[in-house]
Amino acid sequence: MGGPGSSSPCASCKLLRRRCAKDCIFAPYFPPDDPHKFAIVHKVFGASNVSKMLQELPVHQRADAVNSLVFEANARVRDPVYGCVGAISYLQNQVSQLQMQLAVAQAEILCIQMQHEQPLQSHHQVLELDQDEKALLLNNNSINNCNNDNNNLGYAMSSGQFNSNFASPSSIMQMQMQMQDPLKQESLWT
Amino acid sequence: MNPKRCAACRYLRRRCPKDCVFSPYFPPNNPEKFACVHRIYGAGNVSKMLQQLPVQTRAEAVESLCFEATCRIEDPVYGCVGMISLLQTQIQKTKNLLARTQAEITVAQIKHSQNQHSEFM
């Protein structure tokens, strides 16, 4: 705001109708050409809370923090009851299903290996898991249900697939520690 | 002061009315719950969000807000979005491993049936 030669205010200062200072904490992350980005974060978290959060972070981490706040705010607006937690619950279920399928497949490999180690046994002793046994183990779940994870995140959030007995953040954080190389993928923001 | 004020009204140092929007979900015996949510979202925003929801969904909404707020406090940069990223990575890795294992099964089955066929010959 101001005279000729001055840059336009950032999206936050525009929305808050105030002068955009040179050291405005929001300006690097909320450009004026994307007013929706700040609007949604302000709606869910409030400008002063966002400002406090950013001030407590080193500068090089603020862009990621803003992006994650925007993601959470969008999730909360899309699903006012469960927000991001609906997506977490959905993904945890997928992980469980896939791990079960993997266990079944690995058991089948073991069976086949055992067959190879005992070649003189009767050929009628087939140790492979038949369809009924597989279905029993998998409860009719199939890998086809696990495709298109990202598209289904939106569905999960709006349909409220949520197990209210979810683990505490600390125990889920422990799960993170057990995962290989926690990766903050840039693709998450696309 | 009314000892039966909910945790929110205690925290905000105000009277707790009979129709307080917070009181069913922030009992006085758990002050940290409200403190955590207030720190991230602010009491005003939480109140607005709850008022816009049907009563039967508010308990779940509060629990999810608490969860996300706790995640954000523990990880101020990524919050619960970091968890989503990790889960997506784990899903992809497990899918890859499953595909590899299923391919091994197919190869092993083919070899096995070829061996059986050659034994019959």
Automatic annotation (TrEMBL), chain A:
<dbReference type="InterPro" id="IPR004883">
    <property type="entry name" value="LOB"/>
</dbReference>
<comment type="similarity">
    <text>Belongs to the LOB domain-containing protein family.</text>
</comment>
<feature type="domain" description="LOB">
    <location>
        <begin position="8"/>
        <end position="109"/>
    </location>
</feature>
<dbReference type="Pfam" id="PF03195">
    <property type="entry name" value="LOB"/>
</dbReference>
<protein>
    <submittedName>
        <fullName>LOB domain-containing protein 12-like</fullName>
    </submittedName>
</protein>
From TrEMBL, chain B:
<protein>
    <submittedName>
        <fullName>LOB domain-containing protein 24-like</fullName>
    </submittedName>
</protein>
<comment type="similarity">
    <text>Belongs to the LOB domain-containing protein family.</text>
</comment>
<dbReference type="InterPro" id="IPR004883">
    <property type="entry name" value="LOB"/>
</dbReference>
<dbReference type="Pfam" id="PF03195">
    <property type="entry name" value="LOB"/>
</dbReference>
